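Incident log entry.

Two folding requests arrived from the same account within the same minute. Monitoring flagged them as a possible duplicate submission, but the sequences differ. Recording both here for audit purposes.

Request one:
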Amino acid sequence: MDTVAEIKMRLPIEQLVGQYCQLTKKGRNFVCLCPFHNDSHPSFLVSPDKGIGYCFACRSGGDIFSFYQAIEGVDFVAAVKELAERAGITLQRTSIPSVKKD
């Protein structure tokens, strides 16, 4: 298993988004006010099954890495390093990807 997949497996999207937003359960998904624009009605949907979050108002979203990059203002490599630490994964120098893998 590659590093990115292992981080995604250990750090579910709802756990990460829940650290920044107040999530409310809605069926199999969660909703919250979008952290990327001035939102008055919960328009940010988090899908644990798909491992993504998406705002239907401002059309921003993605996986844990793109969410973390947008909310923290970091690049992909920094997101991998910081999320690996949160997930309890020790990175080897050679395991840090230089380009985002989907």
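Request two (distinct sequence, not a duplicate):
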Amino acid sequence: MGIVVKRCRYVVKSFRPLHIVENSSIVIDGEIISCVGECRDIHGYEILECGDSIAMPGFVSSHTHVLPSNIAAVGEVVREALATLLKHGFTAAHIADEQYSDLFCDKANEVGLRISIGPLISSEDDLKKLVTAENLRRGLCIPAVNIRLTEDTNNNVLSLVKDFASGKDINIQVIMPQKISDVLTYYKKKGEWIVKHLAKTGLLTKRTCLAHFSWATTWEIEELMQSEANISIVPYADSMAGILGSVHPQLFRLKRISIGIDDIWKRIGTSILYDIIALQTVYSAKTWGLYPQTEDVLHYSTRGGAQALNIDAGIIEIGKQADIAIFEINKHEVQKDMVSTILNSIHIAKYTIVNGKIAWQYSE
């Protein structure tokens, strides 16, 4: 049994390069996309009438905080937060909260959102928590390890986490210092800039994501260009906190950039539009007016995020994971510019499909 997303006005197959097909259907067999286009003679499948809508790759947040402080009904809050992400077209998120990891996995599987989650490691005393990571591999949960990087982070900790995750398909997220004073203290204590130091430990692999990536030197950007590491920028949260960093004008030459929405309780809403606005307006002042085009930011929010979580999704293509968001076109604001049409339509999803299953469906 599969799903046919029937006859969408537009299907955005990818944002970089921007590839849009009109009046097309999407066939999903199990978890995988099996057809994009005419897709005739499909019988016995569940039919979703797409109509005057836009189907696009689902959004991915590569760095997300869900737990507010001082909460009582944890299960209800987690479920509501994950369901809210689905409602706005998110199909996956890396959860940076380490508390209640088992609960998060249970609720993620319950609502149908794909998540990456695991323990937070900041010292050798925390290494005993590594054994809990593999136990999180169930359903839509991807096991991960978070490292909070400070000048006191022991080299042995970095090496042991790398060795533990190697070959086990476990994601590593390194939470970077957010203040320039902390970056300089790190350099003074370690004798190397952060990216160079991480490269020496062998951590700059496709399984690693550097979160809150703000402060960077030219040679660190060059080091990252030679690696497979992912970076997560959190434009909305950092701009609200005044932690913009010295965003290097060459930053956007990197191939594996993703967007983190950070703390969902400190935002106006979870729509990706707030991150696009923050990145293009606030950050542009730090990059001498050189900032990514809207379709590039949408790429970071889809394919870039999927790469950061190591999911074979983020594009709508035969053989890829069926993680898809469908938005009804805002008929009152349709413009000739296709990117503007997309932006004016992104709000509440009509359908959010995760792993080939309908996880969210809008109802009046």
